[in-house]
Amino acid sequence: MFYWFMLVISITAEVIGTISIKFAGDDAGPIEYLLLFSLVASSYYFLSKAIQGIPLGLAYAIWEGLGLIMMLLSGYLFFNERIYNEKLLACCLIIIGIVMLNNGRINASQKGE
């Protein structure tokens, strides 16, 4: 459970860090950029902790996939960006891919691989 918690922290830091890029335009000062870099660096730090107990491919797929979905929702909620049907389909495909990767991990462990 610890490793999954590390992955959730990593995803959260990545999403907040990426959102802060939108706010760190030309008029941003050094504190805003320090926050941005700290969040992105901490995201990779926590991802490195997560992959100690979660297979790398699965952890990265979840990190990237859920991060993308959260960014899509953040754009909609905070920046009035539209969500088109193609984006919703892409999110569904991401979730399907993550589920398939996880099922492959579970099936391999049941077979003793």
Q: What's this entry about, in short?
A:
The chain is mainly alpha-helical. Helices cover 82% and strands 0% of the residues.
Describe the SSE topology:
Elements: H1 2-23, H2 30-50, H3 56-79, H4 85-110
Index terms:
mainly alpha, 4 helices, 0% strand
Explained architecture:
By secondary structure, this protein is mainly α. The chain has one domain (2-110). The protein has 4 helices and no strands. The chain has helices at 2-23, 30-50, 56-79, 85-110. Helix 1 (2-23) runs antiparallel to helix 2 (30-50), helix 1 runs parallel beside helix 3 (56-79) and helix 3 packs antiparallel against helix 4. The radius of gyration is 16 Å and the shape is flat. 15% of the residues are buried. The mean pLDDT is 89.
Largest sheet: none
Between the first and last Cα atoms, what is the distance in angstroms? 21 Å
Low-confidence stretches: none
Query: What characteristic shape results from the CA principal axes?
Result: flat
Please state the average pLDDT score. 89
Structural class: mainly alpha
Number of E-state strands:
0
Q: What Rg, in angstroms, do the CA atoms define?
A: 16 Å
Number of domains: 1
Beta-strand residue fraction: under 5%
Order of helices and strands: HHHH
Helix percent band: over 70%
Number of helices: 4
